[in-house]
Every structure is written in structure tokens, then in C-alpha cells.
Design a protein that fits this description.
Elements lengths: L4 E4 L2 E4 L8 H4 L13 H16 L10 E3 L5 E3 H4 L24 E3 L7 H6 L4 E9 L11 E11 L1 H5 L27 H23 L5 E8 L2 E11 L2 E11 L1 H6 L6 E8 H9 L12 H4 L38 H12 L16
Parallel strand pairs: 3-6
Antiparallel strand pairs: 1-2, 4-5, 6-7, 7-11, 8-9, 9-10, 10-11
The structure holds phenylalanine (PHE).
Amino acid sequence: IGPDSVEVLGHAYPSDDYTNVTPRILGKVGRNLHNEKNHPLWLIKERIKTHFYSAYMGRGGNPLFSVHDNLSPVVSVEQNFDSLLIPPTHPSRKKGDNYYLNRSRMLRAHTSAHQRELVLSGLDAFLLAGDVYRRDEIDSSHYPVFHQMEGVRLYSNHELFSAVEGGEDLSLFEGGGRRTPQKQEVHSLEATKLLELQLKNTLTRLITHLFGPGVQVRWVECFFPFTHPSFEMEVCFQGEWMEVLGCGVMEQELLSTAGAGSKVGWAFGLGLERLAMVLYNIPDIRLFWSQDERFLRQFRVKDVQQAVSFQPLSKYPPLHNDISFWLPENDDFTQNDFYEMVRSIGGDLVERVTLLDEFTHP
Ligand code: PHE
């Protein structure tokens, strides 16, 4: 492998002016913490699987949702963005926020990157767990590699309305409609409202299964290019609201290009670390990468439903450093480049890097 290519999972990708993956990040690809037996991320994935298997049955009494947890994190830029109707100029495509192998391949920034291919393969209900990569500042709840679980559920006209009184007369689509904050132009209001209700009920049941009935959650309206309407769910953790998932009614255009234009559906993507932090009382997201026995052994339970409350371990006393430096005029300095340099030297021992102040001499 020469300097003009990068190797990921045994495959060489030619580099170009977009290449920005670092050896530190590549070192995490293939770790698959979510597939490591008794790792807290595996535990929470198993709990979510068990819940969906037992709560949702197909017609033959078989589990409705299939589970996929072995899809490669190397995806095309097309999968990660275009397939989800994310416009070519959308800020989420920035080099500064993503890990590109080159102009056409990247490490997936979310598990939604696989929505279209799995719908195209004919699936109507699936869960998908995987590692995702985003260039970000590192602190106790942010790390450039984390794990998501995606869920998708499609409905035919009959499936969505069969439980509703007079449902035979309702229809998923309506001609000549307008896009409003409530719905997409092609959907009937009944279809959207029912989908939204099913989606929120599904997620509330899941969260209640995970945390018990005492958990406080709230819904926040938001925007994603691939769902409308869209919502975020926040969970109260240590007195603060923490965003744990994004979801919404799938854009009909996405379903049409995925060969499922006659159905409607919802999708969600949840952060496994965030949920595990709340569930097991893990105070810092970096601990998930720990190889320390004192961390790992706390999660070796016989039954995945068994409660675990993490007992913190401290290794080093805290130390603060202030650094100031001059930037030449017109310098194309990127904050994330500096953070990555600090990380490449200090590793996960660096608890936090923050910009305290900026000053430009008049
Ligand atoms: N992919 C979105 C994210 O990572 C979450 C999401 C998934 C939103 C599915 C809507 C539907 O933020």
C-alpha cells in the first residue's frame, strides 16, 4: 500500500484530495464493539432485538423485524447522502465533519446509509446496527466513532388501516395535496397521523422496556431530508435532556426509488452509546473503548436483561492546560485538524479540548 491509497478492512482505496481518514480512526474500523459478546453496546443491542422479536410477530408467528449487524461501514458517498435525498450542497457533507476515503467512498456517518439498499432487497421491517463515523470534538458524550441502530417499518394500505374502524375506505395517498408541517404532499393526513402514532408508540414501548416506566422522555420536532414529519426523542439523564434518537415518516421519493412506492413507512436511528450511558450509568462515552478488565467484567451478566450499574474507576488526576497561539492572516485553519493533532498525541487521555477565546487585532 503506497501513500496514494488507504487500506480499510483489507481493501485498498485510491486516495485523492478528499482523503481525510486518520490512522487513529482506521484503527477502530473492524472493532465491531456491538458484536462483542457482553460488551455494553452488545448488551443493549441484544435487549433491543429481544424486545422487537417478542413484541412484533409476523403472520406466521415469526419475528417481524429482521436484524442486520454485519454491513461494512465503508459506503459510497451516494449511499450516505444521495440515496437519502441529501442535496449536493448540504452542510452535512462537509469534509470537516466526515471521514472520506476519497471523493466517492467514506466511512458511513449514520446507519441510514443502508435504508435504500435494504428496502430494495425487499425487506418491510428491519433493524440494523453498526459503527458510524463523524469528525467531532471529543468530550464525555461525543466521540468520532459511535454506534447506531436503525429501524424501518413499511406498511401496505391494508396493513396500516386494517386495525382502524372503517379502514377499508381509507387510502395512503392523495392527489393534488400540499406539503405542510404535518405531512408530505402525496400522503393522506390519515396515513401520516397513523404512521406518526405507530412510530412514537413503538419507540416509547422500546424505551419503557429498556428503562422501566419511570423514564422521562420528550419529543422535539426537527428536520431530516429523508423523513417528514421528523422528530427527535430526548431522555432525561442526570438532570439534562439528552438526544437519543431521530425518526420520522420516510420520504415517499426515497421509497419510490427503492422499489416500494406503493407502501409508506417510518424510520428511526438511535445512538447506542447514549442509551447505554443512561441505562448502565456510564459517565463517559470513551469508556466503551476501554480494554480494562475492571470495566469489561462489570457487564459479564448471565442474562441480558439483568440490571448493571457501572462502578466508576479513576486512573489519573485531572490536569488543565491553557494554550494560545497566533494564526497568520488568511490561514485556512480548521478547528478539527487541531483537535485531531491533540488526539493523535494525547489519545483518549485527553478528556476535553475546547476553544476558550478568539481575538482579532483590529
Ligand atoms: N440518521 C439520522 C441521524 O443520524 C437519524 C434518523 C434515522 C432520522 C432515521 C430519521 C430517520 O441523525
